[in-house]
Design goal:
The complex is a heterodimer of chains A (about 300) and B (about 180). Chain A is of the alpha+beta class and about 300 residues long. Chain A has helices spanning about 10-30, 30-40, 65-70, 80-85, 110-120, 145-150, 190-195, 250, 295-300; strands spanning about 95-100, 105-110, 120-130, 135-145, 160-165, 185-190, 200-205, 210, 220, 235-240, 275-280, 285. In chain A, strands 3, 4, 7, 8, 9, 11 and 12 form a 7-stranded mixed beta sheet that branches. The chains are: A alpha+beta (about 300), B mainly alpha (about 180).
Chain lengths: ~300, ~180
């Protein structure tokens, strides 16, 4: 018998939707007030409708349990699992993202409006942390270029700057001032051609559902060929800018972290090697691939650059 | 009493073994268990002599046991590095040990603890016990190693440095009192 794969399981969303449909039908028989009551109770943040990824490279997904219980989210804690509990009271809806800088019309948009505008698709990507672990995650969202096409950056826009929300009441580490683990708010950046690359992704969900708070809800960046710290969480601002933004880890320690942070097995972190990686859930290691396995797609972006210097 | 101490100290290893199957990042988990265990026991091994000076309780008879337990944890920690993390690729182990300060600092600490463990039995101890002051160097290096192992140091790393400073400070203080 063929073992069950994740695709054989009825998505939680469909399962729930069916139950609600049945309830609605029953409710209609009773009264219209009961019906509208049930409609209001429909859980908003449960499932997402999206175009699935065919997974052409046959990547083996990590489990949802692994991906949602092992995170780096320093706004909550430097611990890998502590953010799971600490983030549960985080209010992620409504959530406005600001679009500013060198673009046609500066504006704020709610996450649901973005989903309505750009639609949703699934992307099964490798994810490699600079610390030496990796996983494969099915993200749901839309490519960043769709958003940029809509925003129409002007000719001065050479880079895109991303900023995590600064809201100390929500993020305990942001209350700590000088004793914070990193400088807040977290900032990341991409060159415009990197940002417009079809692989560069804005995620609002994973494993068929909305992002959980600990994974950077409600909206985050995913750049699969770069170390995980580039994939900034809980976005507050997306700005088109002229100068290369100073990303948080580069500011923290420029000898150890650069602007580009492309996954590169040949360029070590000063303190540890990057040649291999620990796939979450496994006791054995695997070779790290140049550009995290996306060399064919993205290597041309860096033609002629010394990747040892521009790490 | 000693047996109880040994069983208590080895208990975390049992917990680690039990958790291994469901661990999300098993290699890192084993590093953490064995590393935290080694440093904690190394710090603990300094307590008997401090205690004798300060509170006149004599626990010196447990010192060797604690020290050897620290060695067991250190050995396991290094085994994780050699067997699981480096998969017995000795070229890469050699290269990493030479190039990465965070690794060679840990390795020097390991060699000190290893030599101390080997010379901790009767005849050899009589000859080498004076060199066992090297534990202070091993501890300092181990603390540095644990600091460098993290992307940014957290509560645990600062905590063990604080405990280490208190224990080493007490020795400096006792030494000053005696000779100055």
């Amino acid at each position: 018998m063929k073992p069950l794969s994740i695709n054989d399981i009825t998505p939680e969303g469909l399962f729930e939707a069916r139950r609600h449909f049945l309830k609605l039908g029953a409710g209609a028989l009773v009264s219209t007030t009961a019906l509208s009551q049930l409609l209001a109770d429909l859980p908003k943040n449960l499932s997402l409708t999206y175009t699935p990824d065919t997974n052409p490279f046959k990547l083996t997904l990590n489990t949802e349990e692994q991906a949602t219980n092992y995170v780096n989210f320093y706004e909550f804690s430097t611990d890998k699992t502590a953010p799971v509990k600490l983030s549960q009271t985080m209010k992620t809806s409504p959530w406005n993202v600001g679009f500013f800088g060198e673009l046609k019309t500066e504006q704020m948009l709610e996450v649901d409006d973005l989903i309505a505008k750009f639609g949703l698709e699934e992307r099964i990507y490798r994810f490699r942390c600079v610390e030496g672990w990796s996983m494969v995650v099915p993200w749901i969202g839309f490519p960043l270029y769709k958003l940029l096409d809509y925003l129409e950056p002007n000719t001065k826009a050479k880079y895109v700057k991303f900023t995590t929300r600064h809201e100390p009441s929500m993020f305990p580490d942001q209350q700590k001032g000088l004793f914070a683990s990193i400088k807040h708010p977290y900032v990341e950046g991409l060159r415009m051609d990197e940002a417009r690359h079809p692989l560069t992704f804005i995620a609002v969900g994973m494993y068929g559902k909305r992002l959980l708070p600990q994974n950077g809800a409600p909206i985050r960046l995913v750049v699969p060929w770069k170390y995980g710290f580039k994939s900034i969480k809980s976005l507050d601002l997306i700005e088109c800018v002229e100068e290369e933004p100073k990303n948080t880890w580069q500011v923290m320690d420029p000898k150890e972290y650069g602007f580009y942070a492309n996954v590169n097995p040949k360029v070590d972190h000063p303190r540890w090697t990057q040649a291999k990686e620990r796939v979450l859930g496994k006791l054995t290691k695997q070779d790290t691939l140049p550009f995290n396995g996306y060399e064919k797609e993205v290597a041309s972006l860096y033609a002629g650059m010394d990747l040892r210097k521009l790490f | 009493m000693k047996i109880f101490l040994i069983l208590l100290a080895l208990l975390p290893l049992g917990v680690a073994y039990y958790q291994l199957d469901n661990a999300i990042d098993p290699i890192k988990m084993l590093y953490a268990y064995t590393g935290i265990g080694a440093i904690s026991l190394l710090l603990l091994s300094l307590i008997p002599s401090s205690c004798k000076r300060i509170c006149t309780i004599n626990w010196l008879r447990y010192r060797k046991t604690i020290g050897l337990l620290a060695f067991v944890y250190t050995l396991l920690h290094v085994s994780v590095f050699v067997v699981l993390d480096s998969e017995l690729d000795f070229m890469s182990i050699f290269e990493k040990s030479l190039k990465k300060p965070f690794i060679y600092v840990g390795l020097i600490a390991f060699i000190i603890v290893l030599l101390m463990a080997l010379t901790s039995f009767k005849k050899l101890f009589a000859k080498f016990s004076k060199y066992h002051k090297a534990v202070y160097l091993a501890l300092t290096l181990a603390l540095l190693h644990s600091f460098w192992a993290q992307k940014v140091a957290g509560v645990f790393e600062y905590g063990i440095v604080a405990v280490g400073l208190v224990l080493l400070g007490e020795r400096v203080w006792a030494w000053k009192k005696r000779y100055m």
